[in-house]
Design a protein that fits this description.
about 450 residues; alpha+beta; Alpha-Beta Plaits; 5-stranded antiparallel beta sheet; 4 domains; Uridine Diphospho-n-acetylenolpyruvylglucosamine Reductase, domain 3; homodimer; 7-stranded antiparallel beta sheet; Uridine Diphospho-n-acetylenolpyruvylglucosamine Reductase, domain 2
Amino acid sequence: MEKMNQIIYELKRTLGDDAVIVGEKIGDRVVSYIDHNPMTAKAILLPRSTEEIVAALKICQTHAQPLVPQGGRTNLARSSFTEASDIALSLERMNAIEDVDVTNRTITVQAGATLQQVQEAANQHNLFFPLDMGSRGSCTIGGNIATNAGGPRVLRYGSMRNLVLGLEAVLPDGTVISSLNKMLKNNTGYDLKQLFIGSEGTLGIVSRAVLRLWEKPQSIITVLVDVASFAQVIQFLRQAQQHLGSVLSSFEVMKRNYFQTIIQAANIRSPLPVEPAYYVLLETMGLDRELDFEYVGKLLDESLEQGLITYPVVAQTKAQRDELWFIRDNSEVIGNQYDPVFSFDVSLPISSMEKWLAQLEQNLDEAFEDAHCFMFGHVGDCNLHLMICGDSLTPADKQAVDDMVYGLVVSFGGSVSAEHGIGLDKKHILPMSRNEPELWLMHQLKGLLDPKNILNPGKVLG
Amino acid sequence: MEKMNQIIYELKRTLGDDAVIVGEKIGDRVVSYIDHNPMTAKAILLPRSTEEIVAALKICQTHAQPLVPQGGRTNLARSSFTEASDIALSLERMNAIEDVDVTNRTITVQAGATLQQVQEAANQHNLFFPLDMGSRGSCTIGGNIATNAGGPRVLRYGSMRNLVLGLEAVLPDGTVISSLNKMLKNNTGYDLKQLFIGSEGTLGIVSRAVLRLWEKPQSIITVLVDVASFAQVIQFLRQAQQHLGSVLSSFEVMKRNYFQTIIQAANIRSPLPVEPAYYVLLETMGLDRELDFEYVGKLLDESLEQGLITYPVVAQTKAQRDELWFIRDNSEVIGNQYDPVFSFDVSLPISSMEKWLAQLEQNLDEAFEDAHCFMFGHVGDCNLHLMICGDSLTPADKQAVDDMVYGLVVSFGGSVSAEHGIGLDKKHILPMSRNEPELWLMHQLKGLLDPKNILNPGKVLG
């Protein structure tokens, strides 16, 4: 207690009283986007600049005080969770859009800017930042970088790692690694920014970033189709890639039970007159509506002719498009209907998906009386999401369901986290996806950059 | 001498006599693609497997023996140069294409496979590996990874870093870091492969890799246009990006003196009836020839109307396309006409290029009587190449010209290496592009992974 008071005293003296939240006010914040319990921590720091992050880290380093960087707290693996003994460092005050460079097509931002702020700033200059996800209004660029965020357009634009040209990060000892490169090609020594992308705030705190911008799509075409089997989903994906190439920006699959549950709960009339085994939602982002329609038309004609699909529905208005995406995105409906719901974010080689799912469903049927396996996801990115639930399932079944899902994922060559990261929730299963030498090297890197283990300790690595 | 014999003895005993070249046979090999002097080294190792690389590294580690990994020895910054006291490790026997996975669109290869082998293997399956460069028949995938190779299609497909899904690398102590991921999304802990991409063989030896494949372009359109000023080149680039989006695969610029020198030397009749200040060679890679022509047609119509260009020439045959690329690629003609030629590979924010070039040319004119500055490059990737020469220039002027070029590059916000890397030739100027904390962290990483400094010592870092 003595010690904590000394740290808080030093932090307040250095950052100012208003930048150090303590006491009851901490509980005014919820733990996360999905966990609405009050947050607990020894303090929450609100630095206004990279210099203040440096100052805070130096104080914490001196006292070996654990520090947890926080963006929008929307991560689904508890990457930014705080214990009562942790100090949180929120980037929320560092949310400036510093520069939009139209000629070089870059945007330079502080890490606390939300994804939506960045999307809108790009849009104002008739440019486009392609990363997107439901939490866009809350999640921050720093968090997107720390978790190498994905979403539904990775197929076309890559994940966050591919969208970052330069960044600035503060190491646990207060060293500022400023690599704010703006150029597409720059091979001058080691690409240090890669250390901080996807390492979930365990190696450094991302403070600023330069992101790559693209041409703003002038034409978006959204199509829903029915597909009779998973093998045909894959065939249709291949065909879509052949016809649409890089104009194809999303290729999402939904199993019938997922699609039907969502539309029934939301009281939406199905856009299709049939109830196929799988629904595919595909979207193109191009620069010429007329030409894009020709591309999409050729794909649909060929797929219809081959019997791969029977009822393609092309969204005719923004409202129709929004409705199709609402169905895809609104998985929380399932959370409202069942309790518990065991959710999964895994990746698999596309060629293994069908057999993996069939085996999993068989195993679930054998183990539980009425288990439902709701499946949807970014099939073109090798990324599936599952929600497993049923009236007979209880919280006590979590371990058995986890073992079943992850065991099969690994035996089919997949990985236990596709886009949500490891955080606190998956660190016990990280060794299922990474081998001994890989884990050893990760620990070596952590030891090198954070020898006192003060930065987001206990996340990702044990 | 005693010590060396012991190492050679151990290496021969472990790898076999035929896998350890010593003595005069070493000089049968040239230093590199551009330096045809005989190579010198204590030995050249030719391992056949990852296990043999491990064995070789363990022996070298025990004896603190410097080891230089070699691919096709085509690097232009002397990344794979050997001193007489070094042992070279060539991956040439590890050149297998292990697997082409059509459904997942990946290719798994040993690191000694040439770029051309990979391009051809993909092509046989109607898929496409987009990395390309003039040395494709000699350069290897391991070298492409170690140098984060670029080339003329980075604009569309990214550099090598973006094309690698997984890799296997051997650390100096013989630890095998095998991360042969095949999936587009995989966020399970630190992305260790990034350490080995672009670190020029100083942190580990890349032994195998999984690469991402794309749809094979069904239509390639190649266009040469005249542009009156660099400002208009940039305007035309922006227009091309707006009209063509991701179908645009290359956007190359050539200054008049470069273009004219090449066509005169090669006795090619200019495809254009004018001699503009700049030539732009642009190429699209799409999936539908008819639609791509519409896209390109709209761009050219608009640019003609606005007076940005006056004589667009669209290649009508493969021979015409090859001739246009021959002009762009054949910079060695200048090397045949002048001696010395000081060559540069730099990157600059696109918005700084014009002023940078004007200032550089003015400074060159002031310092030298007849300096020519031949300029060409991947303007869309922020990457320009220069060849500076003139009858009055002598090898003694190298330092002055280097200082002039790099000094201006840095003052205009650029970097001293765009795609060729640092190797031996640029390590003295690396601190111009990277700050103290960055260099400190690079040394920390090198110290962590290669504490005895045996792997490609003296390259990249001092």
